[in-house]
């Protein structure tokens, strides 16, 4: 589904990713870990086409296509999705308006028929029930006045409604209490399917207690410094990055 070869990225002239390689197949969940500043969020934003990141080299192919040649809208239509570490508020645009417009825009680009108001409402309410979210949030501005847990739940709600092929979750677990974490994890597990893939960017083992990844990767000096199974995250939790990944500095 996703093949990254030699990806080099700069931000404001500073080298962040320095020849990163990564392969992801459909049906797999990959966890990206690493200290602050190691490039985890940079990778997530580059994949979805954020303009603030300067790709200096390498290749990214998504389902056989040159991902870097596609603009943001084309990447979304092709099935990419990013849940933000810090979800933004959009005053004046209700959650229900936003979700309906986004879903029907994607369906239109995929040559699928748009959902009418009743069909959409049935779909989104079922997903909200799944996420144990108050339906009143549908009629408020996107993330406006939401608690931290509500904002993160809203990101997972968007993922469940839009049904992307490759979902990238950038520290979706940060700042959550245990109940909110369990709701988020249940939503992620409900999304998992053999024809989809997930990239989980996280600092902590606790999300992985509920969402079992197939692979765990540690970013080191702008590259994947070490890869393994779920047991690698446990090792990192116990020993830290320095011992688990020799040479890790955490300054890139």
From TrEMBL:
Pfam families: ABC_tran. It comes from the Bacteria. The keyword RNA-binding does not apply. Keywords: ATP-binding, Nucleotide-binding. Residues 2-246 form the ABC transporter domain. Coiled coil: none annotated. Belongs to the ABC transporter superfamily. Ycf16 family. This is Fe-S cluster assembly ATPase SufC. InterPro entries: AAA+_ATPase, ABC_transporter-like_ATP-bd, FeS-cluster_ATPase_SufC, P-loop_NTPase. The keyword ATP-binding applies.
């Amino acid at each position: 589904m996703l093949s990254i070869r030699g990806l080099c990225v700069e931000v404001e002239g500073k080298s962040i990713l320095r020849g990163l390689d990564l392969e992801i197949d459909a049906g797999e969940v990959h966890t990206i870990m690493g200290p602050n500043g190691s490039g985890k969020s940079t990778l997530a934003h580059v994949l979805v086409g954020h303009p603030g990141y300067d790709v200096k080299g390498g290749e990214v192919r998504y389902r056989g296509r040159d991902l870097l040649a596609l603009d943001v809208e084309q990447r979304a239509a092709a099935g990419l999705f990013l849940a933000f570490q810090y979800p933004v508020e959009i005053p004046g645009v209700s959650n229900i308006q936003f979700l309906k417009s986004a879903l029907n825009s994607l369906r239109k680009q995929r040559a699928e028929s748009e959902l009418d108001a009743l069909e959409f409402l049935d779909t989104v309410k079922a997903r909200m029930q799944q996420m144990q979210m108050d339906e009143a949030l549908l009629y408020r501005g996107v993330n406006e006045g939401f608690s931290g847990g509500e904002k993160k739940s809203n990101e997972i709600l968007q993922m469940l409604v839009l049904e992307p092929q490759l979902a990238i979750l950038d520290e979706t677990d940060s700042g959550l209490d245990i109940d909110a974490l369990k709701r988020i994890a249940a939503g992620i597990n409900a999304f998992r399917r053999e024809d989809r893939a997930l990239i989980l960017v996280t600092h902590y083992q606790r999300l992985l207690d509920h969402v079992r990844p197939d692979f765990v990767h540690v970013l080191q000096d702008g590259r994947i410094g070490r890869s393994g199974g779920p047991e690698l995250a446990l090792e990192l939790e116990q020993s830290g990055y320095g011992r688990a990944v020799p040479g890790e500095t955490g300054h890139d």
